[in-house]
Write a structure and sequence with these properties.
Length: about 375
Amino acid sequence: MAIRHFDVAVLGGGAAGCPVAWFLARAGLRVCVVEPGVAGGGGASSMTGGIVRAYDPDPALMQLSLRGVSLFAEWERHGLPGPSPLKRTGFHYLVAPENIEAAAAGAQWLEEKGYPVMRRLPASCLQELPFLRPDHPAPLALHEPMGGHGNARLTCQQLVRSLVDMGGTVLENAGSDIRLERAPHGWNIVLPHGTLRASIAVVAAGQATRDYLPQLPVFVRSIPLVRMQGATVTPLVDECNQTYFVPAGDGTFFCGSKCNTDLPHAAPVTDLPAVSRAMVEDARMRAAGVLHAGISPQPLGAIAGYDLYSANLRPQIGFAAEGLFTLAAFSGRGFKYCLAAGEAAANLVCEALGRTAPYAHACSLDAVAPQSCQPELEHA
């Protein structure tokens, strides 16, 4: 039987793989998504809601994030499928004293791009943040009215359903025994019970990217998240207390702990520690530093999350070898720019196939290009 051929095979159906697959299919390419489980159901994409914001201390990520907010906030205008997964609640970034000049410069850059950012004292934000302690030590708060939080799983599911409607293929529950083999003019994707061929393979497999691209300078880091009850919050990042809040329903929210663990390169994610009392107490302490004295947050469960990281917290997006593209290392904060990354990556893949880049407003990816590396051709 002849091997079925695609223009592009995307390995991974999470917040990295689904957007690039959708933008490629929208551009008219024959696309197949290969997902070990179900789209949006594994790794960081399955854990919690993601914060959607434009400001980032890294100017390269701020450009991607600004485009990402535009795509989320104007979902229908950009032709994205289904209802927007963004809950536009506004977002606040509480700046530490040592970062005030850089934050002000970043806010000014966003304002010059036409994106609204309000620079305020935290005490003047209490109307939008009634849960915030009035004596919060941050000297500056950035308020993004267009920001909010979104559902990563819903985003992935809507994109793959639309991809199928456009004639694409989604192979869910493909299992973990997936191998890449070089083939004439492309790559074979060898599954337990069959083989596909693609002119270009896109590796967007989260932590499993390490198995395909062992020389990529990335590592797995745990992201402990503790669900708290006792306050209804809006999304925020707090540099002073080194934490963040993601709403999780009326009276509950997720709070980030700093009890992170980094894995050696080849170690499996099963080596990450389970949720511990220390993680929960660390998150409770950090939440108490954000909330006013009348709120006593109580833990209501925890998640031992994880993601693939790079040392400079920038994603690795681009061609890692001939015909082999990677979207990886979103470093626990990639949901805000996942659509922008997918759009821009689709342009590069189309150009590599001899086609015109279809998305005129996509970002440049020069600042997040991966180092060239020899792929591992077998992934067990």
